[in-house]
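This section describes the prediction task in plain terms. A model, or a person checking by hand, is given the sequence of a single protein chain and must write out its three-dimensional structure as a string of tokens. No templates, partner chains or ligands are provided. The sample shown here is typical of the held-out split.
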Amino acid sequence: MSAVKETSKNIKNAPTTPNRQWLSLGVALAVPFVAAAIGGRATGKSVNTWYRTLRKPAWNPPGWVFGPVWTVLYTMMGIASWQVWRSGNGPTLEDNTLVEPAKKRVVNGALALYGVHLGFNVFWSVLFFGQRNIKWALAEIFVLWALIAATLVRFYRIKPEAGLLLVPYLLWSTFAAVLNATIWRMNRGNLLARLLQDLALRLCRRSIMALVDLLNELAEWPVLKQLWEKDPLALGETAFSQRSKGLQPRTKTADKVVPSICPYCAVGCGQLIYVKDEKIIDIEGDPNSPISRGCLCPKGAATFQLVTGSHRVNDVLYRRPYAKEWEKIPLEQALEMVAARVKKTRDEHWEAETNDGHPLRRTLGIAHLGGATLDNEENYLIKKLFTGLGVVQVENQARI
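The expected answer:
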């Protein structure tokens, strides 16, 4: 059994195939160039404009040098990270010795530090060229230099060749830090003047905008409008404000209009239901109704609240005998209680026949009064039910 486990372990950790090695090398080379592309978005906005206006030392390299130098450095960085990665992923040694878990953790830590340093590399371009903040870029490049040095040491301990590949990068970053500091020192006065100039321009721009806003407000002043339009009594368009001109009824934005009948009484007044996004937004009288001609009573005019009112009770409330507060009960329980009490009252007051022996089959202990919101179908079913129960006092609010 141990031999089988050892064989499966060796198969699982077989040497990396050539195709995978080339793929991993391509990814390792692409990572620093992707970071360079991100930083280049900030650099491209200022390198040919703002950067040219700065005062620089005589030993500042010409612009064409930076491209080739960074290409070589990014390539060396990619190869170094690839070599470190190979040291912690599979049997990369000549004798196919398996990499221990402890070494994998060291490799992963070094690569994580390498990734953090790439982020600071991009951030320096954003600060210097994107934000044009030389002072903060100088502070950031010192942190970047420390991260490069730490990454170099970590790489060298894992793979000496990988650490040596980062030496030119560290030297170039040292030169860049000195150049950054020199440019900051030579342009401190210019930067202060530019800041003051930008501040003055912003104040001037805000003053002009404030003056324009004031003039616009004066133009909307009713008195000036009435004098300008020769309408001193404000009986014409001068009585309208910009807000009032833009007002429109909410029914104008409705998706559709559905004709209906008022649900409250038996008069049958016509209504128009305005719907938007499958929701009722307004209910008004229908002027084409031969009954109401667009008019509605106060109750009918408030039909909109029947479906949108926030004060409607949506639960069954029950107050027990001698109780002071209402409690919520399930609808099924409430229906069972109503049915039981109807049956009990019917049985207690049931009249099967008269004193003379003639059949009655009725109860006078129950009366039913329907509400105005009941439609014809509901009234039919209620009348049928209570007549079958022997109830003779069945009325509707609309007839009273």
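For orientation: The chain has four domains: 2-186, 192-245, 250-308, 349-400.
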